[in-house]
Amino acid sequence: MPPPASTPLSDPAGTWNRRFESREFVFGTEPNAWLREHAHHWTPGQRVLCVADGEGRNSVWLARQGLQVDAFDIAEVGVAKARRLAEAAGVTVNLAVCDCDAVTWPHAAYDGVAAIFVQFADPAMRSRLFANMLRCLRPGGTLVLQGYTPQQLVYRTGGPSIASHLYTAPLLQEAFARDTRILVLREYEAELHEGAGHHGRSALIGLVARRL
Known about the structure:
Elements: H1 12-20, H2 33-38, E1 47-50, H3 57-64, E2 68-73, H4 76-89, E3 94-97, E4 110-116, H5 123-135, E5 137-148, H6 152-155, H7 169-176, E6 180-194, E7 198-211
Parallel strand pairs: 1-2, 1-4, 2-3, 4-5
Antiparallel strand pairs: 5-7, 6-7
Helix pairs in contact: 1-4, 3-4
């Protein structure tokens, strides 16, 4: 009898490695538009962490803006592609293969955290992840986050198919309002063209918050 098939939840590293194994960049090589719009909160020389950055499109772009960038992802195939992307761009990104629950989250070490579509996390992991992102931000540091809202289950142009992994404004307010000053929190719809992985009409939410 064959072993049971793995699922994204039971084998996240394997799932993402298989997804990233094609030569093409699943989410393209250009940065996320929300990140590009709000990266002005950081200045060259500051230290930024990119959470679960996959094939490196966001971390490499931030390094090109003169930032000191650390990034990690669970998929070694994705991180290898990120290293090649950084080399081609002529920039340095400190990249690591690591799970969100295993990575070191140094206290108050970063001026910024970028968390773009980190919606692989179920509610329990998400709570730990959000707490760790806040932990590693210096006072005055800025979090830039983007995700999908439940309306994305109708569009199905990217993102998780599990409703509990999606974001709402009240969810993000509850997670961040106590420890940050929320500068921007916006639910909106837009056409995404981020490779084959995010393509078409999308139900989005974006957050920019400053650590108290």
